[in-house]
Amino acid sequence: MAEHDGYLATGFRDVDGNSDFGKLEACLRFMEGLSGFKAYKKVSIEKLRLKRGDTVVDLGCGLGFDVDRIANIVSPGGAGIGIDNSEKLLDAARTAFGDRKGVSFIRGDIHDLNLPDNSVDGIRVDRTLQHVQDPQKVISEMVRVLKPGGWMVCAEPDWSTFVIDAGNNEVPDAIVRTWKSSCRNPWIGRQLLKRVRAEGLENTWADGRILSADGLKAADTVFDIYATAEKVKVKDKEISQVLDAWIDELQKSEEREGVIACVTIFLAGGQKCK
């Protein structure tokens, strides 16, 4: 399979170059309904300590859900700005939220923000540093555009914590390894706090939350179980001999006791020195 074939572990690096945008979009929309997803999102926005009239930037804004949430907090008089490098995602975000006052969406490279120094009251990035070429450069840019006294928040998975609870540990472990090796920055979650502190922020903090998908359909939608299994078949001939049997057993397990997959989302942030 090509890199941009809709495979979730690599597809978000270049959404517009992907042959299956619908799959990527469906994943983002599905995750919006997950309870663990809602819980860490709530924390990540609360930690920005927003108030009415603030200007807030959401990097890698995707379909714009968080920009809308932010706008609800800072309105009236404030602004929620979403920045993403995908025109397809931004088109969908503008369709959903573009008519709302105080909401705007900009296409741009988050390694090099087209924003003045000390110009925004809050800034966040969520599940995007895992895909970028240079996470530290992005974090440095976040600090640069943040006003003194403003807060920033990063939220990223650590794929070493990814687990699939579904029998025969050898096969799910191989799937986890293949998924993790496909990610550009698989350990970014555990690194967030030290990366934030490296930029000289004050009042730094960190937290961890579990993002779980309960049920085989949910796990496949979020973690691309079947597509990863196909990649394992190509990479590991020995495990491929038992992989089809594992998939069959996985489907039977779903009917009996269910299947769950989860990963830890780490959050870290801090305040720019006044």
Description of the molecule:
The structure is a single chain. With 274 residues, the chain is of the alpha/beta class. The protein has one domain (8-271): Rossmann fold, CATH 3.40.50.150. Helix content is 44%, strand content 25%. It is built from eleven helices and seven strands. The chain has helices at residues 8-11, 21-31, 35-46, 65-74, 87-97, 135-145, 170-182, 188-197, 216-223, 225-235, 237-256; strands spanning 55-59, 79-84, 103-107, 120-126, 146-165, 202-214, 260-271. The protein has a seven-stranded mixed beta sheet, sandwiched between helices. β1 (55-59), α4 and β2 form a beta-alpha-beta unit. The chain is elongated and about 60 Å long.
Question: Topology of this structure?
Answer:
Layout (H helix, E strand, L loop, with lengths): L7 H4 L9 H11 L3 H12 L8 E5 L5 H10 L4 E6 L2 H11 L5 E5 L12 E7 L8 H11 E20 L4 H13 L5 H10 L4 E13 L1 H8 L1 H11 L1 H20 L3 E12 L3
Helix pairs in contact: 7-10, 9-10, 10-11
